[in-house]
Amino acid sequence: MYLTIRKRTVLVVFACLFALCLIPTGVSKLASTPETVSASATDWGLSFGKDGQAPVANASREHLEQFDAYYMGNPDEKKIYLTFDAGYENGYTEQILDVLKQHKVPAAFFLVGNYLETAPDLVKRMVEEGHIVGNHTYSHPDMSKIADARAFEQEIEKLEQGYRTVTGCELPRFYRPPQGKFSEENLKCAKDLGYKTVFWSLAYVDWYNDKQPTREEAMEKLTSRIHPGAIVLLHSTSKTNAEILDELLTEWREMGYAFASLDELTKKG
């Protein structure tokens, strides 16, 4: 009996010591050093359940709110917030803008520096037709690897300067992390700069130019997974998106959805 208790005690002590070794030290909830920022970096992720229901994200709405960050709107309102990411112009944005104008649908375009420099007329048209232009950073880096607040700010500010040169206006304060890569420190930096961070609750693989989804594939994904409060991410480089957008907006409306601007999503009170 004595030996049995002794062995058990040794095992328990060893297990406790081993567990203590696994607990990281010096890691705060908002990391502030390159090492801890790297450790807390995350890829935005969604898990879908039943059709028509909002997905589960790897950060809750409540947790994101403290950083002025969003991935969907009110889950009780059948509203859609339509957004496009654009790293470059691929010849389809004019058609997309035509369809948005025809349907009177507001959208947000998250642009990088290359787009501002190579397609200034389209940027001006976005603004003139009432769409939001958001900050997708100047050079589209993995922002979660940028631990220094000033370096983060420079990526953001350079895009602001380019937008000011093209439009003569100040860039709306909406930020989308490139590739959906982020850390809590990034979210805090964006908030400190006056930005709202905008993720998404619905997207699909539409960015490969040489492997575009068929109309049927795109429509099935985008109609079956739509849900109240959805922030939808599409890429304006997609030929399929340009071709289906008229049909897609019509279908969503027939399903009882209305379209709203990010300004409404982030409005307080």
Describe the structure.
There is one protein chain. By secondary structure, the protein is an alpha/beta fold. The protein has helices spanning 2-22, 34-40, 61-65, 93-103, 113-118, 120-128, 149-167, 184-192, 215-224, 239-254, 262-265; strands at residues 42-43, 46-47, 56-57, 69-70, 79-86, 107-111, 132-135, 174-175, 181-182, 196-198, 230-235, 258-259. The radius of gyration is 22 Å and the shape is globular. The protein starts with a helix and ends with a helix.
Key traits:
269 residues, alpha/beta, five-stranded parallel sheet, three-stranded parallel sheet, 15% strand, globular
Summarize it:
With 269 residues, the protein is α/β, with parallel strands linked by helices. Helix content is 43%, strand content 15%. The chain is built from eleven helices and twelve strands.
